[in-house]
Write a sequence for this structure.
């Protein structure tokens, strides 16, 4: 019977044929062990024409082809998943860019409000210092006027005592019990109820009137400026509240702390009260509201996907 390996050997030398046969058998053993390690069925004897051995070989090749098809399907699925992941990445990058723009806009808006509040606070402090200075000056003027008034009153009493003493001396000289003393003043024009002419007889009265009128004018001007400052505070409070309310409408799945965050309300009547009694509370309230506003803006900028497209 002819050796089946003779079909694979082309060298007539017997030693070379034996060597080639050994290498071929070694290769077949390696293929069998590799197929077994990868879970494929055992390959049949390639040098045997028995139908069972041929069937084993065919089944092994069929299993290899099936595995190849599964590998191709898996590769196709992986490519589809990679393409989908790439599209998702591009979508999320686009959303991230939008969120960055919203964050920049919100930070810019918060910075403007902070600058506006700082300007208003500086203006209010200057007005307060101005009011305190004018109040102190007015107190000094009032103290001077009161001192002058006391001095004049003392002089009047002194003059009255001197007049009484002279009357007593005159009574003794004339030997009369009672001396009627009358002082007649003839009016040449009607008295005026207002203005410096009412005090035209003395320089002190006219000076008092001028100081009082200047003080009243300064007070009226300060009251007007104070009212403008109150209106600015009220407008700023309302604007902060509206911004948070508008941003909440675009939140998606916010946490409970962010959903329940609210600014401290300030009643309008507070702005009509004397400012020296409520100024400290109003300033503290505004500082707390600014902190809450910045926390709200930082949170919606920090959490991706929290703020949907407006």
């Amino acid at each position: 019977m002819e050796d089946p390996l003779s079909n694979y050997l082309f060298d007539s030398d017997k030693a070379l044929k034996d060597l080639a046969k050994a290498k071929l058998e070694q290769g077949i053993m390696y293929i069998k062990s590799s197929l077994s390690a990868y879970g494929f069925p055992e390959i049949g004897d390639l040098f045997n024409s028995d139908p069972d051995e041929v069937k084993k070989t065919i089944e092994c090749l069929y299993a290899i082809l099936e595995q190849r098809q599964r590998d191709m399907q898996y590769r196709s699925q992986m490519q589809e998943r990679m393409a989908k992941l790439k599209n998702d990445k591009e979508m999320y990058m686009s959303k991230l860019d939008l969120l960055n723009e919203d964050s920049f806009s919100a930070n810019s808006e918060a910075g403007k409000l902070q600058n506006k509040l700082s300007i208003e606070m500086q203006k209010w402090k200057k007005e307060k210092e101005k009011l305190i200075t004018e109040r102190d000056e007015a107190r000094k003027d009032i103290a001077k006027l009161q001192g002058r008034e006391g001095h004049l009153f003392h002089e009047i009493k002194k003059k009255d005592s001197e007049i009484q003493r002279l009357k007593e001396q005159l009574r003794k000289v004339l030997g009369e019990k009672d001396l009627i003393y009358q002082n007649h003043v003839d009016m040449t024009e009607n008295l005026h109820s207002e203005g410096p002419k009412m005090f035209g007889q003395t320089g002190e009265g006219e000076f008092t009137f001028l100081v009082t009128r200047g003080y009243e004018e300064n007070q009226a001007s300060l009251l007007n400026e104070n009212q403008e400052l109150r209106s600015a505070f009220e407008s700023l409070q309302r604007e902060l509240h509206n911004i948070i309310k508008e941003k909440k409408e675009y939140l998606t799945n916010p946490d409970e702390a962010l959903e329940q965050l609210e600014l401290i309300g300030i009643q309008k009547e507070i702005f009509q009260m004397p400012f020296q009694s409520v100024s400290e509370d109003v300033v503290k309230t505004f500082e707390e509201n600014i902190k809450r506003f910045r926390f709200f803006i930082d949170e919606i900028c920090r959490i991706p996907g929290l703020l949907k497209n407006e």
User: Anything to note?
Assistant: Confidence is low (pLDDT under 50) at residues 7-12, 177-187, 195-200. The chain has five helices and no strands.
